[in-house]
Amino acid sequence: xxxxxxxxxxxxANFVHHWLGQSDESxxxxxxxxxxxxxxSLASVASNPRYHFSQVDICDGPAVSALLKQHSPHxxxxxxxxSHVDRSIHGPGDFIRTNVxxxxxLLEAARAYxxxxxxxxxxxxxxxxxxxxEVYGSLxxxxxAFTETTPYAPNSPYSASKAASDHLVRAWHHSxxxxxxxxxxxxxxxxxxxxxxxxxxxxxxxxxGKPLPVYGDGQNVRDWLYVQDHCRxxxxxxxxxxxxxTYNVGGHNEVKNLDVVHTLCDLLDQLRPRTxxxxxxxxxxxxxxxPGHDRRYAIDAGKIKRELGWTPQETFATGLxxxxxxxxxxxxxxxxVTSGEYRNWVGKQYGGA
Length: 353
Ligand code: NAD
Known about the structure:
By secondary structure, the protein is an alpha/beta fold. Helix content is 44%, strand content 16%. The chain has 13 helices and twelve strands. The longest helix is centred in the first third of the chain and has 23 residues, at 93-115. The site of nicotinamide-adenine-dinucleotide has 31 residues, from helix 1, helix 4, strand 5 and strand 7. Nicotinamide-adenine-dinucleotide binds at residues 5-6, 8-12, 31-34, 36-37, 57-59, 79-83, 98, 102, 130-132, 162, 185, 187-188, 194.
């Protein structure tokens, strides 16, 4: 069995689907079910006998330890986090609690469990920490892409809390020998992403006839990776990664935010034309930039390609088309996650969800 923290979130849920599809092993999802956790994303595997779920907060060390004793997993894949940059600027406390304190509690529970394992199981155990390229800070237009040796320079409370968690994971390897692996990935997109993030927010607002809010001048550049490619990378690092190493994961898809929105509008124009025949581009509105908005991220994923043979399978064009089609095919999932707490939050940010 493997443990997946945050498995009811966007990437975690995609990973659960990926894992159950490609291995015969069981998973236990550990998730506190915050606003971002959604069991509907796991509904199609709920009756699979290899899928298990426990509602638990990773900050609750004794509860995590009890689950480790009960299920004896050979790996912990740590996705659980507060993950939205805007929220971190408005309320950083939850980010410090889950991303820093929670990772610490999880590492301590993992260390105690790992120390007690018999030698063969001890050698096979892995703690894989899922992190972000945002820990490296922002790039100028002609700076080289982030590599695994780029110094950390986080700029938002989110990226600072993730940087802190990366350092804790590293230290638990160097100080205690815990067998850890870390991945730092660029922006993901795909099915089951909460519609506060750029791509699902734009699809959702476009279909609802609402403004498409683009920060600043829309020229900020991000590297985009289809979520299932990220899942394949994580599975590959778990299988063959060198202990204590970090691996950058990215799609070689540097795109300006405004171009992402234009492409989404063009896809929607084809797949779900507006009744009056005009383009969804008419709904684009420019809004005040996020404070300290990093200008450009770009990731050099050469190490994972060279050493572990991983490359992305989707291009941005094919992945984006799949994503738009998924949101068009799953209006109930979107309707359920956009009720309640999320509607209140987006209402405050963008004048209505
Ligand atoms: P998400 O916000 O969609 O999901 C986070 C999940 O963690 C939710 O299910 C939530 O309920 C759970 N959670 C939050 N606090 C918890 C706690 N205290 N205890 C237990 N569970 C808790 O996030 P995501 O986009 O799926 O990201 C997953 C991981 O990947 C994060 O660590 C994030 O930093 C990292 N990452 C994300 C991206 C991206 O583009 N989304 C890119 C690179 C790395």
